[in-house]
Design goal:
- α2 crosses α3 and α5 runs parallel beside α6.
- 46% of the residues lie in helices and 11% in strands.
- With 195 residues, it is of the alpha/beta class.
- The model has no long low-confidence stretch (mean pLDDT 95).
- The protein has eight helices and five strands.
- The chain has one domain: TIM Barrel, CATH 3.20.20.150.
Length: 195
């Protein structure tokens, strides 16, 4: 079933011209002990990722794996940290598989964002953001300093998209005020940047 889902996802991605697909890791079964099933789950995930990577390579597409925190968002999700994701990507050994690093999940599990961004930068295929802990706009009250993070990403040479995976506190468009402010602080006109 997941292979049919992947085939459908490829067709959708081709239709909208999106070269990247998020390949989800699945959940620890209800009632199972995470440590007891971890080895078997990793083996299955690696096999599935190789299959997906080879299929995506035929379409010149990239597969992304995203660590999702199991402290708040999804207690049973198998893939939880960038460290775990990097180890799995190394075992899979496919150049068209990359890390989708959602800084919300990364901060909750691991913190240490600057070092994690620097360490895992060569593996990163997509970045997502949300403020912690509320999962709202980057300029809402919280733990993360996004102007610093954006400058760090620029200094590392990140040229990809930054996905805004947050729940707007109110109106979506008003909620994008943080982006206008950021552009202005950088001397850019609204939308006057390819980033």
């Amino acid at each position: 079933a997941s292979r049919q889902g992947l085939a459908a996802a490829v067709q959708y991605a081709k239709a909208v011209g999106c070269p990247r697909i998020h390949l989800m890791a699945g959940r620890v079964p209800m009632g199972a002990d995470r440590a007891a099933v971890a080895g078997e789950m990793e083996t299955t995930f690696i096999e599935n990722l190789r299959y997906a990577a080879d299929l995506l390579a035929q379409e010149d597409m990239i597969g992304l794996v995203e660590p999702i925190n199991n402290r708040i968002t999804d207690p049973r999700y198998f893939l939880n940290t960038p460290h775990q994701a990097a180890a799995i990507l190394e075992k899979v050994g496919r150049p068209n598989l990359k890390l989708q690093l959602d800084l919300f999940h990364c901060q909750i599990m691991d913190g240490n964002l600057s070092r994690n961004l620097e360490t895992y930068f060569p593996l990163i295929g997509h970045i997502q953001i949300a403020q912690v802990p509320g999962r709202h706009e980057p300029d809402s009250p919280g733990e993360l300093n996004f102007p610093y993070i954006f400058e760090l990403l620029e200094s590392l040479g990140y040229t990809g998209y930054v996905g805004c995976e947050y729940a707007p506190k109110g109106d979506t468009l008003e909620g994008l005020g943080w982006l206008r402010s950021y552009w202005e602080s950088r001397g850019l006109q609204h939308g006057g940047t390819s980033k």
